[in-house]
Amino acid sequence: MLDKTKRGWWKSAVFYQIYPKSFQDTDGDGIGDIPGIIARLDYLEKLGIDGIWLSPVYASPQADNGYDISDYRAIWTPFGTMEDMERLIAGARRRGISIIMDLVLNHTSDQHRWFREALKGRDNPYHDYYIWRDGAPDRRPNDMRATFGGPAWDWAPEVGQWYFHQFAPQQPDLNWENSKVRRELYGMIRFWVDKGVEGFRLDVIDGIAKEPDRGITSRGPMLHTYIRELSREAFREEGLVTVGEAWSADVEEAKLYSDPSGRELSMVFQFEHNFADCRPGGEKWDLAPLDLPRLKKCLEHWQRGLYGQGWNSLFWDNHDLPRIVSRWGDEGTYRVQSAKMLAAALHGMQGTPYIYQGEEIGMTNIRLPIEEYEDLETLNLYRERLEQGYPAAEVLASIHARSRDNARTPMQWSAEKNAGFTTGTPWFAVNPNYREINVQAALDDPDSVFYFYQKLIALRKQYHVFREGDFTLLDPENEEVFAYLRGTETEQLLVVCNFTGETVDWPLPEEFAGAEMLISNYGGAPRGALRPYEAVMLYRRAAE
Ligand code: GLC
Fold it and tell me: Which domains does the chain have, with CATH numbers?
């Protein structure tokens, strides 16, 4: 078990993200709940993870599945009670698992008491908690767009002003210039630390210091001043792990956030690699085949850029992204091999890995008719693109490939009805492939994706080189193979991954002849050529 009072313990850790609505229902209402998470702690302990990043469980009208919070100090009733939450924290801790809460500090729900008070009048003490502009009801302050589509300004007739929302209209942005807002938020964070929470994931943290009049929504000039204050006031314990979501971060920016001096955050989620299969300059919906050399160079840039000067988070999946097997692997014949290959490619790098629920059994994307999608971003995109004249089939193809709902189908526990997720009617479609892809089947099969992840997690703890080694990309222009070396003075690790469903000629470097094989997805080292989606990790002591 890791000593979590020590600064930097999270460098040896592996985290697991739970999207509570889709994890495990226990009361038959079709919605996952906290008792469901408690019931699955043994499973997570078996996997070997050190912490759970819990997507929001706070009271919320659920316009954006909990990322619209109406009370930061209460639990959404269908998820359970505060006592359930306390039991979860304690039960997890007994198993060496930390609970990392999701903090949405950029905005609240429009149903939050602060916003309802703010609407009562311009002199209300809460009015200045949000961002307002005067003007005529038929003329927006400017033409900024919201991330989920539509304008970023909405009219509030109650006060005769425009309010700013970077996301949905039901998610008004908080005014971080107001020190009272900041103090309220720090107090709320301390409430959760006192309950035993051991870290936080900070939703869209690069958005807090906006300057909407200048069109700035992320990386505003005050950003790092605010984060340092937040860190000083709210994250006092050395052992707290903090990870900020920062779509705007480049390597230089990430050094500021995750500098080892520790004045800001432990690490950030950056998303540059996530565009390696998008049309250059396009959005995530603008599909292109994976450009493997581009992906490799991007990962190399981050691996080398933060080496000794910050810390990477490593992830393929989360609740906003499609399933990696469907994306860069193979949903068909090579599903298992490709899921393992992608896991090896990621877990061999330097940083803290995050596994998203279901990734460890190789869950896949779903394809639904448009009426069955739930996610507001997906539905807005469909409407907007049709208005812009895109053919419906093309928009649907983008949605099938990239919708956030791909990640939000219920967790597949067994071959029983509704994949063992609920005895009631699930809030969202269960992927019909659950009869084949499920936890029970994975646990029963020693060659499953699950045991591969379990082994990767154990290897990271066993060999120093995973945590400390530097990174050298091999064969950068190769369009089929991702291979790299990690090295310290005493150890060397070679990771080789075939990203295609074909056999590829790729002789292993000579110095690894006879090296110890740490893990492979074909049960044995490659002989001359790499088999479809083959992955292997080889290890040697440097002096040997
Ligand atoms: C983050 C979350 C996403 C949410 C958005 C607004 O990007 O990951 O799910 O919709 O912030 O809170």
Answer: 9-107+179-454 (3.20.20.80), 113-164 (3.90.400.10), 467-541 (2.60.40.1180)
